[in-house]
Amino acid sequence: MAGAPDAPYPNTEGHPSLPEPAGFGMLLPRILVPPPGPRSLALAERLVRSEAPAISTLANGDRPVVWHSAAGSNVMDVDGNVYIDTTAAFGVASVGHRHPEVVRAVQEQAGRLLHGMGDFSPAEPRAALASRLAAMAPMQPATVLFGLTGSDAVELALKVAAVATGRPGVIAFDAAFHGQSYGALAVTGREHFRAAFAAQLGRHVLRAPYPYPYRFDGSPEDCAAASLDAVEHLLAGPPPTSGPVGAVIVEPVAGREGEIVPPPGFLRGLRALCDQYDVLLITDEVYTGLGRCGRVFAVEHEGIIPDLLCAGKALGGGMPVSAVLGRADVMAAWRPVTPEAPHASTFLAHPVSAAAALAVLDIIATEQLVQRAAQCGHQLRGLLEHLAARHPSAGQVRNLGMMAAIELVRDRATRAPAPELIAPVLAAALERGVILLPGGMHGNVLSFGPPLTIREEQLEFAVNAIDEALTVTGQ
Ligand SMILES: Cc1ncc(COP(=O)(O)O)c(C=O)c1O
Fold this sequence. Notes:
CATH architecture of the largest domain: 3-Layer(aba) Sandwich
Strand order of the largest sheet: 4-10-9-8-7-5-6
Strand content: 5-15%
Bound molecules: pyridoxal-5'-phosphate
Number of strands: 15
Low-confidence stretches: 1-15
Largest sheet: 7 strands, mixed
CATH superfamily of the largest domain: Type I PLP-dependent aspartate aminotransferase-like (Major domain)
Shape: globular
Mean pLDDT: 94
Order of helices and strands: HEEEHHHEHEHHEHEHEEEHHHEEHEEEH
Structural class: alpha/beta
């Protein structure tokens, strides 16, 4: 059904840019019109008419603000409202949005070579990035494989494990978000992402409970032990129909499922089980990696070394690039047996993304963002705990570095999840100029993962805004 042609949108066609306020990136919010403002609404209406509903909630009636520009820890919407971004856009903008060094690297590379030719003729920055990442990998000696998305990295790691062990089975967890392309979806836990495709997803995955101390009746030690027992039971029990288990995949902190921080000792126990049963341990650090949790990689908190580690999100500073860092001997198992590479992808190790990633690694080092994440994480924890003490709906506050969550409940005694509270709190926070992310396997978590460069004043403002949002929504 052809509708009337869209009227030109005044602010993006003809007037491509809204002026940015001085200091944009480091500012406290500036709300000019209640969000979503008229321009956001107009763009959302336009989008909902031409975009299929699978990739947004616009079809459900949601009307998000439409982003115009972002720098540092600020986002400006198309109506000129300036927000503090506590999400780093799904953890991507760890070095801050539009970091000038990332932009410089992108512009410089784009002006020289915009695209390489995959396995056939590699581009220059790929070699530099491969050696940088191999050198910083927890397992040594290490080599790397590149993808564009977190899902790519997960699938590459699963492929390497299948080839290296000759065993296709995989153990994954119930609280697990590893991406939504088919291979990654097979290990992702959330049923409603998987249900429509169940018949097309491999039968190679066994599922264990992720240790979720807040929702476990017992001590954190018992919680970790129960998960480890379940994993051992799977390792010792009958294999999946497709064949024996060759790998376990785990997030060191279950990110999208609600920033669930497993009890100390869990990852060490998992490592020990993998050794005992001779299976590979894949840690998915697409979210937790590159400083987010106060260490370069979150596994360092437990002092364990995975066989394969997936990185993505923050790596490109806003450009799409992901990587698997892996034990060189394991990675070496997957190699060409014909004149063609056994794995290729048109945009693999895209030179512009690789140049951006090299800039990101420099920024993390020079701005000491790993240390900063540890310090700010501590401060954030204090602020959130203070807030939680004033709101009975705040059932638990948890964090590892700058990956934090408040879990909202109907009452603290039963810990019954309160997903219905999330949308009003998000809206009230947005009105106060703070962008928050909903999360959690029960849909009742306020997720917090700001740029690691966020200023103290911005962090305090954001937590105060959540405090107010909880108050005005009666929580
Ligand atoms: C831990 C983890 N792994 C993998 C992915 C998938 O990454 P992408 O969306 O880039 O495919 C995500 C995305 O949120 C993630 O959090």
